[in-house]
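Notes to self after the Tuesday call (sharing in case useful).
The group wants a holo model before anyone commits to mutagenesis around the pocket. I volunteered. Ligand is zinc ion. Logging inputs and output together so the record is complete.
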Amino acid sequence: MMSANLDDLSAAVRYALETTRATTVCPFHDEVIIRVGDDAAESHAYERAKRILRSDGTTFEAGALREEIARQLASAADGRCPKCDRAG
Ligand SMILES: [Zn+2]
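Result:
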């Protein structure tokens, strides 16, 4: 995760969401991203993503970040891993 290429918008947003605990990866299914549902963490993720510097020293455009954060949160599982739910 720490070696992710943060020049990429979706990788940078994913990093910001995970490090602020707005999202978490299922410990049993590492392809499943779970939205924790914490509003404070989600706005913190946005603030963090805004400060990520690309290798050319620039930051991401605010509107693009907001859209990508919304997209990733919308595609994440809500609160619980659906695969664990099915198994349990
Ligand atoms: Zn799971």
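Two things stood out.
Helices lie at 9-19, 39-50, 62-75, 82-87.
The CA atoms of residues 35 and 78 lie 5 Å apart.
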